[in-house]
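Homework-ish question, so no full write-ups if that breaks the rules, but can someone show me the predicted structure for this set?
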Amino acid sequence: MKPRVGFFDFASCEGCQLTVLNLENELLDLVELMEIVEFREISSAHGEELDIAFVEGSICRPEDVKRLRAIRARSRQLIALGACADTAGINALTSDRPVAELVREVYGDKGEAFLVAGRPRPLEAFVPVDGRVPGCPIDGGEFLTVLQALLIGRTPELPTFAVCAECKLRELPCTFERDVICLGPITRAGCNAHCIAEGDRCRGCRGMVDAPRSGPYYRILEEYGLSEEQIRDELRLYNLGGEAKK
Amino acid sequence: METRAATPLRSRPGPAETPAGTLAWYRLSRSDIDRLVRSLNSAYEVVGARCRNGRYTLDRITDPAELALEFPPRVHSPKKFLFPNWEKLFRFRLGGKIMLEAEKAAMPRVIFGMHPCDLHAVRILDDCLFEGEADSAYRAKRQATVLIGVDCEPDDYCFCTSLGTDRIDSGFDLFLHRVDDGYLARVGTLRGQQLLRRHLPELQPVDDPHLAPASKACRRSIRFPVESLAPVLGEVYDHPVWKKIGDRCIGCGSCNLLCPTCYCFNVQDRLDLNLKGGERVRTWDSCQFDQFTRVSGGSDFRPDQTDRQRHRFFRKYKYLWEKHQRTACVGCGRCSRECLAGIDNTDVLNSLFTEQATAELTPAPGVEYQPQMAELVHVEELTEREKLFRLRLPKAVDFRPGAFLQVSVFGVGEAPLTIASAPDPENREIELVVRAKGNLTRALHRLSVGAAIGVRGPFGNGFPVDEFVGRDVLLVAGGIGLVTLRSLLLTILARRQDFGRVMLLYGSRSVDAFLFRDDLKRWHLGEELDCRFAVQEFNARWGVTGGDITHLFRDLDIVPARAVAAVSGPAVMYRNVNPLLFGLGFSPDSVYLNLERHMKCGLGKCGRCQINDITVCQCGPIFPYSRIRHLREAIER
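A: Not a homework solution, just the prediction itself:
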């Protein structure tokens, strides 16, 4: 009996599912080991029991909550796929403004008649989550590692150290040397410091490490001239959902 | 800039080094080196420093023009070639029958651009990884790698001159010294010799090599002998400096990952995607990471950065030194150069050494005879001849009741005075009673509040109050002997519930000679202790007993088996009181006497307070009777 795998999405850009689809060559090795029974992009089956459910996107509406709980009820393991599902991701950028104000701004005066929206929350706020593939978008290699672990019945483990370590292993220059703030010191590793390698900085899309050294790190940011409010803004892009969760 | 020559470290050649029969030198031009690289590429993977995007890195070199031989220390260490991250230990095949596949031989490789400190680092890796059962994965790469050294210029973070790692005489196959018109190549091993003969066969040895002595200067330095590192750390396991740097550490692991001698690793399995096989891999790890010391069940033996940073220092400078007589640090500065938190090894080590050196400084000669200055804050007349003085000391002192101070009036001298107040480790004020009978004591009587007084001490061994706990206490005071017992009595009253009945027998010449009369009245009228008084010059005032203190022992209601007696007074009193105490049933172990003598130095040196073989100022002045009964000079004949 092959494990039955489903992919679901909520509020997101669906970039993580596209990353999965881009792994078509690698997936050929694994497709014999599993049965993909639900993937909106490529399949139309519904309602069956699942061994693994990959859920992308954050939860905003009451019907989303209902649907998510239904997925949870029929899935042996539920995996948060991507930052939107894991920490609410950039969807949580809206968390400092009233929802009604946002609806009016986007949809005009008639918006409230059509849309009953809430604050974007991660999956974990509503159902138990068995595992996660962090990132925005996810890293294809890490997804394969997690999927493989699930298929053989092993608990997937994410790195417990920070992106900083991967940066050093790749011999990349530190962005702080050019006075650019980077969230690598408190962000979970696993992406191989991809953004720094491409000339950008870490923005924390993978969420924080389990025990971030926030105190000494904020002290360093203050030495680089950031105010408390600016530090909070830096973290809001991907991690406020996590803070709201706590 | 500071520069100093450290003690040369012991040479410990690795297995790949075979000393050449004769040390040979060759002169090479840059074009010779280019040809060498091109030729080597046919048989070796050639690695060297090259500049990419303004940054030097050790990398594969196929075009000799890319090879840089003069480059700054800021380059990741050659460790990644000898002990790589993600090293495959072996492959396994799954299916019905599990099969293991041996790893293939290591790639022959030449590393140009080994700075002296990195060559020393290879020695340290050899020590650690060849100890006991050799790590064969490391050994294979080590033996397959040719090491070619080049000189360097230290930058702001280097401190190799402190550790002797700025120079090296062996441990390389070739070393290229920069000279005016090219390079002077020094052969370190037979392999290096053969390399030149095979790839540059036309080269001829230089008969008389002239190499200017290289002098390097580092801005940072360890300002004490490297051999002191392990002993210094041996004293500071619980030092607050670890919390100080631990609170700054962000736990990124850069210090370990960049270090040329750190080799701690993790081992894990990686499966092929098709699950038909996989490999066991070794990856670098860091003692700064959360999972490094975490065990099943969630316990963590070094749970925070304070513990982890301490461990990093101890391993580098103490644990591995003790194993290999070589510090595991080569002063390359990579850890502090890349530390976002600014933790600097030299700052930490220098501050620890300085602190210990300061603590061990020999004080100036005679310092133990110099008094501290105390302020006179209160003077009170007790009797016609005695005054109470309260002094504020430079800092609070701890002592047992019965201890004394040596008090100075400059120009007059110094005298021992028993402390009359109770010990209070947080109180800088202390009380003394001064009887005017000599030059110094009369000079003290003339002082006013605010005067400065010299004070040494406290000295002496007082009453062991903890041995009185739970027992009845009989205090026998004669005349000025009450001063000593007041200190003891106040100590007892401060923790009254710890003791049984407390009785004070006080004898004096006359009522007017009673000390602390206000205290005596309060104690007598209170319920905390039982007081009896006697005077030799009988007087109807106070209603006290006439006669000497022995009269107070009549009808004494006490159970000696559960009591202790403290006696303080003139020596003549002991001849009469002691037999009464023993007659009541007191044992010699539970009778304590004050044997104050003429103490001059307080340090057991001047000999004036000596009683047979003991000095009162050190062993006393408070003695259990059992300790002194054999001393014929203890009690006045």
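Now go work out the reasoning yourself. Hint: DSSP finds eleven helices and five strands in chain A.
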